[in-house]
Amino acid sequence: MSKLFDSFWRALAYCLHPRVMLLSLAPLLLMALLWVALGYFFWDSALGAVRSTLESSAWLQTLWNWFESLGLGALKTVMAPLLLIFAATPFIVMLTLLMVAALMTPALVSLVARRRFPARQRRRGASWWIGLLWSLASVALAALALIISLPLWRVPPLILVLPPLIWGWLTYRVMAFDALADHASQDERREILKRHRGPLLGMGLLVGSLGAAPGLVWASGAMFAVYFVPLLPLAIWVYVLVFSFSSLWFAHYCLDALQALRVQTDAPPGGDSVNLSFTEIPHDPPATASLPAP
Predict the structure, then answer these.
(1) 147 neighbors 77 (Cβ within 8 angstroms)
(2) Which of 29, 222, 228, 288 is the Cys-Cys partner for 78 at CB 3.0 to 4.6 Å?
(3) How confident is the model over 212-221, as a mean pLDDT?
(4) pLDDT digits (tens, 9 = 90+) for 22-56
(5) pLDDT for residue 290
(6) How many helices and strands (H and E) does the chain possess?
């Protein structure tokens, strides 16, 4: 646990490094431009399609009438934006994670290694294209889990629990692999992921919970839901900060674990005492004086 908290505070301190702040601009600008463009061209049409679908349902119309009788008629106008937001947020989160992993994580891991472990040998257990395939496969599995779990989102507590769990698992898979890809060998990476699976998964779940914060803001009020498109760059900035911190956290923890593993495996075996055997050299008996014969 001491290594977990030590790497946590180190990652927080590194977030204030000028190089980290500068690196965060690339995924922020790319994601903001992409989603603002998509929102400008497709938000109104998608919103109209969702509203027409909601209004065409007979049982939903009965539900809206019941809400109006309770004085909650404004809920009908908010429901369509909220549904779109909940549908778009997982893709925003996963794409932002990929952007940070591709554009920031290698530089952040190198920064941590250069400042904390300058003598560390890089054994390059995975090339960049293997890391890319690993990230894409992890994102595909996370997207599949999101799609399968959609029916469970109807239960109010589960919609607040399942997405952070899936995002946390995805963060653990991507960030832990990228933190060790360049410095650890393939066997070392597997051993560290096996030994530290619990703490690493816990780190990912905490980061996934932090990444769910903007989604909770959208769901907290009608005003935020209506202004989702203009406020989206701010939400993306929060996602970039969260995943930048997670990259640094995983880098500190995993490289420290790698250091401990190498100290353990590369140390010479101890405990063997050196026994020196001395060969006793026989000495010739003292010569006896011989008396001449009488």
Answers:
(1) no
(2) 222
(3) 59
(4) 999 999 899 888 887 887 888 788 888 877 777 77
(5) 43
(6) 13, 0
Amino acid at 163: P
**103: exposed, middle or buried (C-beta count within 10 Å: 0-12, 13-18, 19+)?**
middle
Give 146's pLDDT tier (boundaries 50, 70, 90). confident
Distances (CA, A) of 253 to 96, 119, 138, 221: 22, 17, 21, 38
Q: Which residues contact 128 (CB under 8 A, 6 or more apart)?
A: 181
Token code pair at residue 212: 């769910």
Roughly what angle, to the nearest 10 degrees, separates helices 197-211 and 228-266?
Answer: 170
DSSP string, 233-258: HHHHHHHHHHHHHHHHHHHHHHHHHH
What backbone phi and psi angles, to 5 degrees, belong to 167? -65, -35
Cβ–Cβ under 8 Å, residues 125 and 184 = yes
Which tokens is 7 given? 């790497």
Predicted TM-score (pTM) of the model is 0.78
- Per the structure block, which two tokens stand in for 20? 């980290």
Nearest-CA neighbor of 97 among 142, 46, 150?
Answer: 142
Side chain identity at residue 66, one-letter code? W
Phi and psi of 70, rounded to 5°?
Answer: -90, 0
